[in-house]
Input
Amino acid sequence: MLNKYIIAALIALIMSQSANAGDNWIKGTAGNLPEGRWETGLFQPLRYGYTNDMEFSTQPLLFFVMPNLDFKWKHDELAGFQFATVHSVYSPTILLNLASREGTGGILSPEFEFPFMLSINNEVLLTKSFDANHSMTFKLGLNLGISGEKLNPTSTIDLPFFFPRLAVFYNNWSVNLGVDYDGRFKDNLIYSVDADYYTIPGYDYDTYFEHKLTAGYYKEGWGIMAGYKLFYGEYPFGTQWHLLPMFDIVWGWN
Amino acid sequence: MYQQFRQIMSKQTASSIRKLTIMVFLIIIVIVLPDCEPLVYEFPSEETCDIYENTKNNEPQTVPATIKVMTWNIRFGAARAHWFGESCGERVVLPADEVRQNMKALADKINELKPDILFLQEVDVESRRTSYVDEMQYLLDNTYFRYGVFASNWKAQYVPSDGLGRMNVGTAILSRWRINDAVRIQLPLIDNQDALTRYFYIRSNVIKSKIQIPNGPEFYAICTHLSAFATDSTKKKQVDLVYGMLNDIDQSGKKFIIGGDFNLVPPQSDSTDYCDEDMCQGESYHHTGDEPFHKDGSFYTPEKDWLMVFYNKYMPDVSLSAYTANQQAYFTHVTRFNTPWDRKLDYLFTNNKWVANSTTTHQDLLEYSDHAPVSIMWEVPNVK
Output
């Protein structure tokens, strides 16, 4: 049972990166959920519009094994761009220690015991709307990784998605840059394309790239999306590309 | 300025960006898709082996009367580390420094023993457990061999069990002379595993290759590593496949040498049940209610005659009469630490001639691996 939960939680972690777009379904832009609106999905984080300028979100599937909280704060426009900052914290210690186990589901060797770890991420989002249906968002983030003690360098998870996000704990900091393009094919048919670059300065494996293309059908209260995510990165064994399918069902309410 | 920007970023511009974006991503997918590996590599029944060559090492041009061949399961360069998998240990991932140190010891010993052809088993080339040290390349770079072939028997991007992670381990042949036509032949998979375990599990193989001595004969060099933990008839099927392959070569009039870890004890062995010897703390075997009743990979009794066909038809490194007269002298394997070798699992066979009394089971090399190498001199056939 625990094996299945660990694997489900890790899949959810990847899937939760799928971006939504649309009037209410905006996630990867500087826009916020309206005050009082809730949104979530099978894999999506639970988001709540606290005010029209402030939004909280967390990944509930993971919360008890990887406490996590995001806070998006919308600021005044900046040179014609919507401007927001996102401040996130998460601690993967419990999840990693659960994944360090003997037998099936042992993602990591049981010989590793992970100390308290905390990641603090701060990201700037600048969104330019071309018209009512299309926008482009630029992202710049600084990620800090704090670890109670020095981690064993062979305890990395050498898989896409996980490696660059956990690398921050081995290197203490990393930077990410990205661009999102969100648009509407037709009334409820929405697409999102993005590209993200991670650099982990000073780390042996310091370059990482992700790109995603999703399309979804969204109504006021629910939506369904599918797409793919492409990964390229440097790992301890060398470089590798990965292409993974993505899907999700989302719903929202006021 | 803002108004100007708005004008520039008109709908047409947005449309152009959209088209350009789609084009770029389509191109990326076309480039990337061929590079995308499956999570676990499921081998075809036969495929070409990876070829290694170290051009700094010379290829001898004279035809020797005899050559030295050796087989060695090098335990993925773990030496006698207390690894979890087969030795009741607790370790899973070995740091690169430790692996390189073990590989240096192996390379130094190989340089001292100087086989002309070396059959290797459990060679890691890109595994998390050995910190991604390419042991095949290491041996080629640090010995006198010019040529090598490698074939994986366990290749997965991630094995989600015990923290094994990425795995690429296999069998290999190193040779002073050029290796041609090397193919990896898939051996039957273990039947009695559930589908998920089977998907992520080891896929045993045989490397079948030809070695060409310049101005001399061409002969077959074959390396194999049969399933260690099969508890059904899988190993028998593997033996039959290998035996059939050797018979085909023999009937074609060609000479062969085969070396490997057969994971079978010789016929007429006094001991065929090693459950007690291999038992880890907290395990129990041979008692009512024990499940399994025998430890996987340690109970050879049902298999004790499976190698007889090889002994009956081909020349073994140690004859059965010599073996039965002094079995301990030819043991090549032990799982526990600080105990003498307790069974023979590693063999060399040929359809040509070994030089009489030239076999050595290198039992002094207890610290290098959980297998001892076996070497012997082979008479080079006088044909081109």
